[in-house]
Write a structure and sequence with these properties.
With 192 residues, this protein is mainly alpha-helical. Helices cover 49% and strands 9% of the residues. It is globular, with a radius of gyration of 20 Å.
């Protein structure tokens, strides 16, 4: 169950399934924000695109937190070997979910979940769709080490580094400029 409208970011439109996965990744506690899965109302809101109705059970939340951690590790991995291990961890957790092909509509095939937790199945289907569309590499973590917000890179060349250039990108560039200026001022003073 994907949201009916897509969220936009600084650059363009984010597909609904990707927006839901980004919201799941950003539901964790980071940059001074609390974990959105800690309160029933916010947990339900985060998990609704994946099929959640009502307050999630503690067992479901434990499993979702583990899946979220696996996906965050994949998104933050720059090494192929680490990425493969993180995907294996996600696959292991999602292995309790099975799907069956449904050919009920002429000319179409749909995967229908037949076993496992329905929200885990929803998360798995969202991730699988993003991968099948060739867009998983667009899911990133902000290059600002203090922030590390997840975002979907809508740029044509997939080169975006910050979740918000106006906030994290600008702050990082200003801090780097000040550090270079201070270093060059120190060098000039030492020569003088």
């Amino acid at each position: 169950m994907a949201p009916s409208t897509a969220r936009t970011d600084d650059e363009g439109v984010v597909p609904p399934r990707a927006a839901a996965v980004v919201a799941l990744l950003n539901s964790r506690a980071y940059a001074g924000r609390p974990d959105k899965l800690d309160t029933p109302a916010s947990a339900e809101a985060v998990l609704r695109p994946f099929g959640q109705e009502g307050a999630p059970t503690p067992q479901r939340l434990d499993l979702v937190r583990a899946l979220r951690a696996d996906l965050l590790a994949v998104a933050g991995s720059s090494d192929q070997a680490d990425s493969a291990g993180n995907w294996a961890a996600f696959s292991g957790r999602a292995s309790s979910v099975t799907f069956q092909q449904d050919f009920a509509s002429p000319g179409q095939v749909r995967l229908r979940q037949v076993t496992g937790d329905p929200v885990v199945g929803g998360i798995t289907q969202h991730v699988a769709t993003i991968i099948a569309e060739g867009n998983w590499s667009r899911l990133r973590l902000c290059a600002n080490e203090v922030c590390r917000a997840a975002f979907y890179d809508t740029t044509r060349n997939r080169s975006r580094r910050w979740h918000s250039y106006g906030y994290c990108g600008n702050r990082t560039n200003v801090a780097a400029h000040r550090a270079r200026s201070a270093a060059s001022d120190g060098t000039a003073a030492a020569k003088g």
